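re: the backbone from monday

yeah here it is again, tokenized this time
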């Protein structure tokens, strides 16, 4: 298998075969994101991608899960993505699931029939960087989608039986937009009812516009205590019927996970006991140029 540049995948895809269909991210404008700043976006030639699949099938013929890289592989177009899914299906007899990072724009431009076709080819899980449900926060981080776009794409994915793993970035609005972040995220996540939900912490990374905004005084990061309080307030407002919740990423100050709604009271009481002991330091500012593994 051949990879171009640094490769990112969700922690839960650690045992999946990774296949790179696109290089970089076609959007590449989110102010906090350093993942693909060093890559020029392009779609790889399908023949090369198929060769990678063939090599992987020789190395790990019994693989059950495939994760398609990079940041928004569906931007390659539905024909290319479906062709890849078909090729993967023909080479991995035990294939159970194909997944990738997704965004609202790519899902919304597909027809319901196209999504169902991808689902029939075992594309069954998308990792969505919601980041926030707050309209002002989404605008300020240049996400390229509104809260309503996010809900609409989740509805569309659900109708095609494609599950979403939704990522929220604690602290994404900084101090000024923390209220918008909290209230908007509660509303949007409740409307989405995702199968998986992760709270990560927005790390302020060198080379990103967010770092520049902070240095110029336009963005004030949250303290550790305020980040935990934001997590507590968001979690407290969530009314989810069946969601696996995780807050155990390397960016998080503490590790929590559980199933909602059953574990909600335990998770909240854990946060309530930790918040008074958290300090008022700001530890989300990085000195290294590493991006987040979402
Ligand atoms: S957060 Fe996602 S959509 Fe935004 S620039 Fe990074 S990879 Fe692209």
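seq for it, each position gets an aa:
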């Amino acid at each position: 298998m051949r990879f171009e540049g640094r490769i990112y995948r969700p922690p839960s895809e650690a045992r999946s075969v990774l296949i790179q269909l696109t290089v970089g991210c076609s959007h590449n404008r989110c102010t906090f994101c350093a993942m693909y700043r060093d890559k020029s976006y392009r779609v790889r030639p399908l023949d090369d991608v198929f060769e990678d699949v063939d090599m992987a099938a020789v190395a790990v013929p019994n693989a059950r899960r495939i994760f398609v890289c990079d940041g928004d592989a569906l931007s390659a177009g539905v024909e290319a993505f479906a062709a890849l899914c078909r090729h993967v299906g023909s080479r991995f007899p035990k294939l159970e699931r194909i997944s990738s990072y997704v965004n609202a724009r790519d899902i919304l431009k597909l027809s319901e029939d196209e999504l169902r076709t991808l689902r029939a080819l075992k594309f069954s899980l998308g990792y969505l960087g919601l980041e926030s449900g707050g309209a002002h926060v989404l605008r300020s981080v240049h996400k390229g989608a509104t809260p309503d776009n996010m809900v609409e794409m989740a509805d569309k994915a659900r109708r095609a039986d494609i599950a979403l793993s939704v990522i929220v970035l604690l602290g994404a609005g900084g101090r000024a937009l923390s209220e918008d972040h909290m209230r908007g995220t509660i509303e949007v996540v409740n409307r989405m009812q995702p199968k998986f939900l992760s709270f990560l912490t927005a790390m302020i990374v060198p080379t990103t516009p967010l770092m520049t905004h902070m240095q110029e005084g336009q963005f004030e990061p949250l303290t550790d205590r305020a980040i935990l309080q934001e997590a507590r307030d968001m979690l407290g407002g969530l009314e989810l019927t069946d969601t696996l919740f995780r807050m155990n990423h390397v960016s998080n100050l503490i590790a929590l996970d559980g199933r909602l709604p059953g574990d909600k009271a335990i998770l909240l009481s854990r946060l309530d006991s930790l918040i008074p002991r958290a300090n008022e330091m700001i530890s989300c500012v990085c000195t290294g140029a590493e991006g987040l593994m979402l």
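The chain has one domain: 11-277. The chain has a mean pLDDT of 96.
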